[in-house]
Amino acid sequence: MRHPGDAIYLTAMHNNNYDPIARYYDVLSRLVFFRAQLSAQIEQLICIPANGTILIAGGGTGWVLEEIAKIHPSGLRITYVEISAKMLDLSKKRDVKSNQVSYIHAAAEDFKIGTDYDVIITAFLFDNFRAEKIGLVFGRFHAALKSGGLWLFSDFYYNAGSGKHWQRYLLKAMYLFFKRISRIEARDLINTEHCFEEALYLPLKTAYYYSGFIKSVVYQKS
Questions:
Q1: What are phi and psi of 149, to 5 degrees?
Q2: Lowest mean pLDDT among 43-52, 107-116, 132-141
Q3: Could you tell me whether strands 214-220 and 145-156 are parallel, antiparallel, or unpaired per DSSP bridges?
Q4: pLDDT (0 to 100) of residue 78
Q5: What is the Cα–Cα distance from 108 to 127, expressed in whole angstroms?
């Protein structure tokens, strides 16, 4: 058995890699979105069952591990996948209490899933991908989630028909910035509701933040 602080490194430099701003990412997020991104994730965590197996894909700096440990200080087996080596290193310093965490340095589309999970958490992950990559990643995670399992999803949300002008301008600015800094491959935000609808997921809880620009959904696999 590996030590909870050990990491498996699987990738080199890759698109959608936040290494250049890893140490400043949380600060930048709070400067722009205040606590909206945090709240969208934290308010879902109460749904995590005790003694469950959890896959966190694109976990960033790992602060969510400490929030999970506040609810379940032990009994969880967590697979933590992050493409940024620097963010992964920050995550390994988090206090996970007695939960078992396997840290894996990999892109979401490259990670070899070897188990079935009770819960999958993807927070602000799919906004990085082109439309064709979204289908690929969704399909892999869908196959890894147990029947009746929960998918805690949160991401930016914009509807061209009803969205506000400032949201569209902010999205353009974000994609331009992250294209330069992190080689982000997406050029536009692709909403993912259709993926969950086609796979017959049941939305148990939906919430909006930052004037509707951030959406979180607790889905259950049927």
A1: -70, 165
A2: 107-116
A3: antiparallel
A4: 98
A5: 13
* pLDDT recorded at residue 3: 38
CATH 3.40.50.150 assigned to domain 7-220? The reply is yes
Q: Is the pLDDT of residue 108 over 50?
A: yes
> Could you tell me how far CA 122 lies from the centroid of its own chain?
3
pLDDT the model gives residue 8: 42
Q: In what order do the strands lie in the sheet with 214-220?
A: 7-9, 98-105, 74-82, 53-57, 117-123, 145-156, 214-220, 202-209
CB neighbours of residue 20 within 10 Å: 14
CA distance 101 to 89: 13
Residue ranges per domain, the chain? 7-220
- Model confidence pLDDT, tens digit, residues 71-80: 999 999 999 9
Residue 12's pLDDT is what? Answer: 40
Q: Quick one: what percent of the chain has pLDDT higher than 70?
A: 87
- The torsion defined by the Cα of 112, 119, 1 and 89, in degrees rounded to 10, comes to 80
User: Which residue in this structure is represented by tokens 């966190």?
Assistant: 56
Count of C-beta atoms within a 10 Å radius of residue 74: 12
Reported in sequence order, the residue ranges of the chain that DSSP labels E, i.e. its strands, are 7-9, 53-57, 74-82, 98-105, 117-123, 145-156, 202-209, 214-220
Q: What value, to the nearest 5°, has the Cα angle with vertex 101 and ends 100 and 103?
A: 155
From CA 207, how far away is CA 215, in angstroms rounded?
Answer: 6
Q: Which residues pair with 78 in a beta bridge?
A: 54, 101
**Could you give the CA distance from residue 101 to residue 6 in angstroms, rounded to a whole number?**
9
